[in-house]
Amino acid sequence: xxxxxVIVGAGPNGLMLANELRLAGVxxxxxxxxxxxxxxxxxxxxxxxxxxxxxxxxxHEAVTGSPAPPQPAPFFQFGALPLExxxxxxxxxxxxxxxxxxxxxxxxxxxxxxxxxGHQVKDLTRHEDHVTLDVSGPDGGxxxxxxxxxxxxxxxxxxRKRAGIGFPGITDDGFTHRTGQVVIHEPxxxxxxxxxxxxxxxxxxxxTFHRTEHGVFAFGMFQPGIYRIAMxxxxxxxxxxTDEMPLDELREAAKRVLGxxxxxxxxxxxxxxxxxxxxxxxxSRLADRYREGRVLLVGDAAHVHSGVGGPGLNLGLQDAxxxxxxxxxxxxxxxxxxxxxxxxxxxxxxGRRVITHSRAQTALLAEGPNTTALREVxxxxxxxxxxxxxxxxxxxxxxxVYDMGSSTHLLTGRWMPDLPLTGNTTFAHLARTGRxxxxxxxxxADVRRAAAPWTDRVDIHTTTTPAAPAxxxxxxxxxxxxxxxxxxxxxxxxLRRWFGDPRDLPQG
Length: 508
Description:
alpha+beta, six-stranded antiparallel β-sheet, 29 strands, eight-stranded mixed β-sheet, 3 domains, single chain
């Protein structure tokens, strides 16, 4: 066997999985078809629960350069409708602006796992106890064997196709999507704030979508004066997809959508214009299973959807965090029966839910008076805090609750909040190890004795916090609560369910 795990794809999801495996003592092999890290702009930020998840691994500080914890966003959008969240308690919709290239740099450096770039998987063969990959590398073809293979190779995943995993869904070809990275000139653009003052529309904030009766306009500024803009126009154009769209085409699309000549030019400081057109359809598809034997899928290999609302990396990176510790447990020999199957049973419904709300948001952007009327009604509904919380939790993933078994405590199955703890520390600091954690808030020796046989894989901390949510809380490595309360029988059951049989302790 050449390696325990091969990760195919060195985008954010593959690199996040490499980080999680390394924390658990497994060193994967990472293959990437591209010869170097992509230079063209892709995703430009993270939205939702994943921002907290990065904080729980110390990666938020690595991205921002600040030890300060993330703060929830007071404002966002749902289908370009305003979502005011400043008055919500426990708002879980966090935003972290970061270009994908920078995120990949941080994750790769943190993982400490070399990436084999220019190594493209051509085929795979599944066996009972391993997988064989046919790989084309810079020095020619070779075979690579692994106990497990994870496809993080995008929507056109070779791993998914060769494993025979279906990818049902729809292709929406009812609009043309154009994007580019351009300089927008004054006086329309305020390069100090990134705002645009559009005649007839007013001042627009970066990072927002704006619907008109002629299309959709979205933009963000990631360097002074340089904007990433997107334009959507409804109706079939008869054009084809291209990465060599002329700037004039983007300029004319902006004029049709906004009704003005948007003063723009290509960057002159070495930054790519990255002008492209997508007219052949946007896919919403979900793999019919995330696991086929020793082959698993994460990220876009498992699900693709509209980018409205920025859900992609929130979904994909949490796939990787959910899978990492389970796959490592399988390799390290202590996984209970069926643990690896819970990756599919937990994450696939979340993928389906994201596809649902991204389709709903796309529908809210459509042209026509009927859509305009629907938006007016929803705008009224979103004045109510209860409705805002429901939508905010939907977009952030805060409404995800996993089935953890018999424990009935309200916190069970939900995300563990970042509580302040004894010794001027926090839960996020303890979670950086990537290990299961048992927090004993009530100094209960019986709880610690019950968990003692699992201390080779579960860390026990006796600590305090203001208004403790329970006597004790057992947290999985992915940040979700496996058990909470004080019932020792439930604790033992949960420890076995998620962390396997205990080791034998010395007698006496």
